[in-house]
Amino acid sequence: MSSKKSKTKQIKPAVSAADISEAVNRHLQQSLGLEREEAGPHELWEALSLAVREIGLQKIRATRQKESSEKARRVYYLSLEFLVGRLLGNNLHNLGIYDQAEKAMAEHGVSLVDVLESESDPALGNGGLGRLAACFMDSLATLDTPAMGYGINYRFGLFKQGIAGGRQTESPDAWREDHFPWGKERPKRKQTVRLYGRVVEKDGKASWEDTKEIMGMPWDVPVTGYNTDTVNTLRLWESRAAEGFDLTSFDRGHYMDSRSKEINAENISQVLYPNDNHDAGKELRLIQQYFFVACSMADLIARYKRENGDSWADFGKKVIMQLNDTHPAIAVAEFMRVLLDEEGFEFDEALKLCRQVFAYTNHTLLPEALEKWPAQLIGKVLPRHMQIIYRINYFFLHTEVEAQWPGDDSMKRRLSIIEEPEQPGGDQIVRMAYLSVVGSNKVNGVAAIHSKLVQDMLFPEFHKMWPEKIVNVTNGVTPRRWLDHCNPELAKLIDSKIKGDWRGKLDLLDKANAYADDPAFQKKFAEIKLDNKRKLAAVIKQECGIEVNPEAIFDVQIKRLHEYKRQQLSLLHIMALYRRLLENPELDVPPRVFIFGAKAAPGYKVAKTIIHAINRVADRINNDRRIKDKLKVVFIPNYRVSLAEKIIPAADVSEQISTAGFEASGTGNMKMALNGALTVGTMDGANVEIAEEVGDDNIFIFGLTVDQVSELRDRGYSSWDIYNSNEELKAVIDWLASGELCPDEPEAFRPIVESLLDRGDYFLTLADYQAYSDAHDRIVDTWKTPAIWWKKAIINSASMGKFSSDRSIADYNRTIWMMD
Ligand SMILES: *Cc1c(COP(=O)(O)O)cnc(C)c1O
């Protein structure tokens, strides 16, 4: 952080319970048209949110004034997803008015908790990538970093998941329909963007003509920081028909696909694509990307000019644009277009400026997630941008690659932003990750091991050309939401021992390590966990109708459903545990509850089959009296931020079992360890650094490492060999294949079995099975001695200082954004 800049210390707002009550009543009457007596929790939620937004918007103005007088560099965080979760409780905490609000609500005869519960999650993201953007917004404000988030105000966020007959159902989530008091429309800042058309050469200049015009309306959401007066803006664009644009009505009856094929202004910001780590490749998606990028670019350039005048001389010092994955990568071409076609730049100067202001975060190595657009499609939707991409590529290959590898045409082919068709007459493909690397100043991976793989496996040649370009910034999570807010009793216990401001300086948690052996502290820590488990048990009873024993080990796997995350590994192991119990019902094992939460992309068949299988196995196990409640399996539907906030404080075991090399970082792993869960995990993503922080004795690491995975693949891996040599594993796979678990559709689980056996088990589930099962035996052994278990749990929580998103943002400030 800047040492020159004064820390915006929080002036404790002169907001009393009475002030809040007054503002709430005013909003009830004037904004909502209700009498005080008519207001239930939901109406009070809305009125209280409006009252808090008022404070937020005031502080935004103060923050902007301060920043523009300091003329600081500002970070623009471009992300197609912001999975912010509920905002009221978080904002009350950050503004330091939680207790006052509690009192004010009590005067209205309701509990603040009920008011907070009536907020629906703004589900503007899929999973980890979108949640990261939200944690980063919290930390940017907390660290007083001048910043603005840009994204899309989707009308339908991620689908709502139900379970019927064990299978996932999807329905649209019209999350704004029951009001979104946090967003404020800003018509003064609306933008018009263009699509389609053609490029005409005029006096040696390119001109983009005959375009369709779309209007972008910004919605501003205030983002409060912890213990500071800084409030930043999250600006979300909504598409509208520009004047004279043909309106086609939106068919609400169908979800995603079977709608009108015609892309019109209205439906650009309708729906979030529900894929996690998978490229959809659809025209509407490309248009979404360009729409929000072009609106944001015009907006931030206008702001620069308002603050700095028309000269571009300082732009590189005042602006940084962070690309959250390649989703906003078209920004590189859009920026070049503005400079070349509208601002009179020469190509070399434009690219130079581009390389000062862009930075790109890579989130995945999965080939199917790396975005590639047909050149034809970009050429149709954005003809001028396609020309510019060719121009950038020409310069890059024939000047820069040529200088590094003179005369090496195969290297040029390898590094080209444009992938040439394998067959003559095939389509050229634009590699958006390459465009991002070539156009950026810095590229970062999101955990140490992942960044190393980005350097060595994904972009080795780029790393050779530009050895300083690819760096690491390990992800983090905000301790305000993921400890203070979701686990208030644990926060209080920590407060009783740690005097400093651990909420703002999470490294201070380390002091709690001194109490890891203290029986009294252990007892309190364990009681808080048990209490959180009782609360989760009530949620499970309500959501799933299943009784679980709060004294059991709560073993949790919550994350998007993906074969690389390997929920199927846990499933096979649970089936094996069940068989062991049937063989020996007197087996001396502590009772265990396996808890899942996961949405599968609607088009991802195997993932949906895994959900189905988990639920069928759960049904069987939960209703079998022979095993005396020693095993329960629960799939809680509709996993989302607000549900995560209830599950995480209750987790004893955190499942982080991805195939090594596939999980870029993970952040669920950090949240659960912070709340005192022990991780069972592979040496993947941030698990590696978690192990480093907590020590090998306090984590259950198992399975193949990245190096062993590639050795095994080189040797030739046969999942059949493992299947044939491991009796228990063979038995459970045969059982899954037999159809016995799903009499109404005996072939239902074939896709899982095929993936594990016939299709070669790409994610090495069987290869890691025995090691995983052994790790669980160690977990059970450890659980049997509470003094050891709770010591480890405390050490986990106390050692998570590194994984605050404040540390991540401080790293970005220092190594990527050069914020002085
Ligand atoms: C943290 C979080 C994630 C990311 O979980 P991983 O285990 O890192 O994949 C996904 N969804 C929600 C709702 C989260 O809060």
Could you characterize the architecture of this molecule?
The protein is α/β, with parallel strands linked by helices and 820 residues long. It has two domains: 71-85 and 121-475 and 809-815, Glycogen Phosphorylase B (Rossmann fold), CATH 3.40.50.2000; 496-713 and 761-803, Rossmann fold (3-Layer(aba) Sandwich). It is built from 31 helices and 23 strands. Strands 1, 2, 5, 6, 9, 10, 11, 12, 16 and 17 form a ten-stranded mixed beta sheet that branches. Strands 20-19-18-21-22-23 form a six-stranded parallel beta sheet, sandwiched between helices. Helix 6 (128-142) crosses helix 31, helix 19 crosses helix 30 (786-798) and helix 20 runs parallel beside helix 21 (605-622). The longest helix has 30 residues, at 41-70. Residues 127-128, 131, 559-560, 640-641, 644, 666-668, 671 line the site of pyridoxal-5'-phosphate (PLP).
List keywords for this structure.
binds pyridoxal-5'-phosphate; ten-stranded mixed beta sheet; about 800 residues; disordered N terminus; alpha/beta; Rossmann fold; 2 domains; six-stranded parallel beta sheet
Tally the helices: what do you get?
A: 31
Uncertain segments of ≥5 residues (pLDDT<50)? 1-7, 244-262
Count of domain modules? 2
Q: What do the pLDDT scores average to?
A: 94
Main β-sheet, in a few words? Answer: 10 strands, mixed
The CA-CA distance between the termini, in Å, is 7 Å
Kindly report the CATH topology of the largest domain. Rossmann fold
- The computed structural class is alpha/beta
